[in-house]
Specification:
Blueprint (H helix, E strand, L loop, with lengths): L4 H7 L2 H8 L9 H19 L10 H18 L5 H18 L3 E3 L8 E3 L10 H4 E2 L2 E2 L1
Antiparallel strand pairs: 1-2, 3-4
């Protein structure tokens, strides 16, 4: 899997993670639920990148995408209408599409922490806000 419960807890508070996953009011994180969501998002990521790379492709980008998608799925379960996390979801899918179509290429011969963005227009493929994807420069 591309991320862990601890990775998600690093992006939101543990209290929020309990609130988003605890369906029986146990005051605990529902690890089984979260791990299922993480696995579903890992499968989704693999579906996008499988045509370009051997999977799993473990790096900061796939981890960040998985965290963002997982938080969105958890928040959606509670029907929270949060535009910020919806934009993280949309940006994650756009990034996966860019990886799949070759606009973004990973340098897999090195540490897999470097990605290269092919800018194909005057304004660029991505907005300046998207160039910093959830704290990671792309």
């Amino acid at each position: 899997m591309y991320c862990t419960i601890d990775d998600i807890a690093g992006a939101i508070t543990r209290a929020e993670l309990v609130n988003l996953s605890d369906d029986i009011n146990s005051k605990d994180i529902n690890e089984e639920l979260i791990n299922n969501i993480i696995q579903n998002n890992t499968d989704l990521i693999n579906g996008y990148i499988r045509g370009k790379y051997s999977v799993p492709l473990i790096n900061n980008t796939t981890k960040t995408i998985c965290v963002n998608l997982s938080i969105y799925e958890l928040r959606k379960r509670r029907e929270t209408n949060d535009e910020e996390y919806r934009s993280y979801y949309d940006d994650s899918i756009t990034l996966l599409e860019s990886i799949a179509d070759g606009t973004i290429n990973f340098n897999t011969t090195e540490t897999s922490k470097h990605i290269h963005v092919k800018d194909t227009s005057e304004q660029g493929v991505f907005s300046n806000a998207f160039r910093t994807f959830r704290g990671m420069k792309v």
